[in-house]
Amino acid sequence: MAVDSSALINWYDVQARDLPWRRDGVTAWHILMSEIMLQQTPVVRVAPIWEEWVQRWPVPSRMAASSQADVLRAWGKLGYPRRALRLHECAAVLAAEHGDVVPNDVDTLLGLPGIGAYTARAVACFAYGQRVPVVDTNVRRVVARAVHGRAEPGNPSTTRDLADVSALLPRTRARAATFSAAIMELGATVCTARSPECADCPLPSCAWVDAGRPAHTGERRKVQKFAGTDRQVRGKLMAVLRESSAPVERVRLDQVWPGDPGQRDRALHSLLIDGLVEQTDDGLFALAGEGG
C-alpha cells in the first residue's frame, strides 16, 4: 500500500506546527543546529535554546571561534552534551574547509564530524530541498502502520527503512521535500506511538487501520528511565562545572551525589573519557577547554 502524498501534503500545508527552524531566513547551518539538538530531545526544550544559538552563532566560524566550554555552557540542560562538542568540531571544519557554508549533498555531509545518516539527509532535504529519504522514529512508525499494517516498526534497518521511504517520495524535488517534512509531522503529532489519533489522520487509507489496528506482537522498546541513572549523575556534575567560572575542587563534585560514591566516580570518569571534563595538573576539574 502506498501513502497518498497529495492528501498528506495538503494536510501539512494547513496543520504544520510553526517551528522556528521552518521560518523564512533560516540557513542550512541553523537547520543543522536544530537537527543536532532535536536528537532525543523534545521540541519544547530545544526551541528557546536554538533561538539563542542562532543569535550567538549565526555562522559556523562564530561558533568555531568560541571555546568548547562556551558551547557546553550554552547547551545547558538539553542532555547528551557530547552532541555540543561534536557540533563545535563540525563548525570548525565548515569554517576551515567549506567556506563557512553547510554542504548540500549527503555524501559530503556524512564526512563532517558528528553527522550521521539521518542528520545528513535531513539537512540535504529540509535546508536544500533535495529528494532524499529522511527516516526518523516518527517516519518509521507511519510507514509501519500505513504501508505494512503493523502497530510498531520493529528494529531499525537503515537499508530497508531508506528503501521504504524512498519508494514513497513524489517524483519532483519540491514535493518530495515537503512530503518528507509532512510524514515526519504526521508521526510526531497524529500517528503517535502510544495514542494515535486515527480520526484526525489525513491519509484516506492505512493498512493498519484496514486490518483492524492489530496489537503489536513483538517486544516493546523499553522507555529509558532517567532518575537514578549515570546520566542523571553526569548531568549534576556538568551543572556544577557549567555554573563555575573557574576549575573546582573534587569536594564540590562529591556533594552533588553523596549517596553512591561509586556511581558518582563512574559518572565523573565517563565525563573525562568523553572529553567533556578535564582535570588540571593540581587536581581540579573543569569543562572541556578550561583545564589548562
From TrEMBL:
It catalyses: Hydrolyzes free adenine bases from 7,8-dihydro-8-oxoguanine:adenine mismatched double-stranded DNA, leaving an apurinic site. InterPro entries: DNA_glycosylase, HhH-GPD_domain, HhH_base_excis_C, HhH_motif, MIG/MutY. Keywords: 4Fe-4S, DNA damage, DNA repair, Glycosidase, Hydrolase, Iron, Iron-sulfur, Metal-binding. GO terms for molecular function: 4 iron, 4 sulfur cluster binding; 8-oxo-7,8-dihydroguanine DNA N-glycosylase activity; adenine/guanine mispair binding; metal ion binding; oxidized purine DNA binding; purine-specific mismatch base pair DNA N-glycosylase activity. It is an enzyme of class 3 (hydrolase). Its EC number is 3.2.2.31. SUPFAM superfamilies: DNA-glycosylase. PANTHER family: ADENINE DNA GLYCOSYLASE. Belongs to the Nth/MutY family. This is Adenine DNA glycosylase.
